Amino acid sequence: MPKNKIKKIAEEFFAKMDFSGEIEVTEEPEMIWVNFETKDSAFLIGHHGETLKAVAWILKLKLGEEGRNLILDINNYKRDRKERLNNMAIEIANKARATSKPQVMPPMSAYERRLVHVALIDQPDIVAESEGEEPNRRIIIRIKE
């Protein structure tokens, strides 16, 4: 589906929910990012992005097959969170190296845990393992033995 058609559907989607703002659609090799810039971001993102996850799911249903590789973002919340998690993962890996002790990250969603694993993939001396049960599942970062 062309970017302009995705943009039009997203604009109609948010207008029907009575939200105003600007839609930007960006294509990447494996996904399509739809960022909605709006003054209503806090409401649309919700606590720890839970509302955003639900809104994205509904938009993907509306887009059908074209929505399967779509990432909905509100005011670049997910892009910023991805960058913060990447920096946090590297800092914690460095702390694990400095102390030679495993470091425990706070509980995160599956999506965020995946971002941390990806952030550390090029660190051959570091192991990142998820443990625990949802919603308290977290990552332990330690030096590879």
Structure write-up:
A 3-stranded mixed sheet has the order 1-2-3, with helices on both faces. The chain has a 3-stranded antiparallel sheet with strand order 4-6-5. By secondary structure, it is α+β, with helices and mostly antiparallel strands. It has helices spanning 3-16, 41-45, 50-63, 77-99, 110-119; strands at residues 22-27, 32-37, 70-74, 103-104, 126-131, 138-143. Helix content is 46%, strand content 21%. It contains 5 helices and 6 strands. Strand 5 and strand 6 form a beta hairpin. It folds into 2 domains: 3-75, GMP Synthetase, Chain A, domain 3, CATH 3.30.300; 80-143, R3H-like domain (Ribosomal Protein S8, Chain: A, domain 1, 2-Layer Sandwich), CATH 3.30.1370.50.
Secondary-structure blueprint:
Layout: H1 3-16, E1 22-27, E2 32-37, H2 41-45, H3 50-63, E3 70-74, H4 77-99, E4 103-104, H5 110-119, E5 126-131, E6 138-143
Parallel strand pairs: 2-3
Antiparallel strand pairs: 1-2, 4-6, 5-6
The amount of helix comes to 40-55%
CATH superfamily of the largest domain: K homology (KH) domain
What's the story with the biggest beta sheet? 3 strands, mixed
CATH class of the largest domain: Alpha Beta
Task: Briefly summarize what is shown.
Helices cover 46% and strands 21% of the residues. It has 145 residues and is α+β, with helices and mostly antiparallel strands.
Protein traits:
46% helix; 2 domains; 145 residues; alpha+beta; Ribosomal Protein S8, Chain: A, domain 1; 5 helices; three-stranded mixed β-sheet; GMP Synthetase, Chain A, domain 3
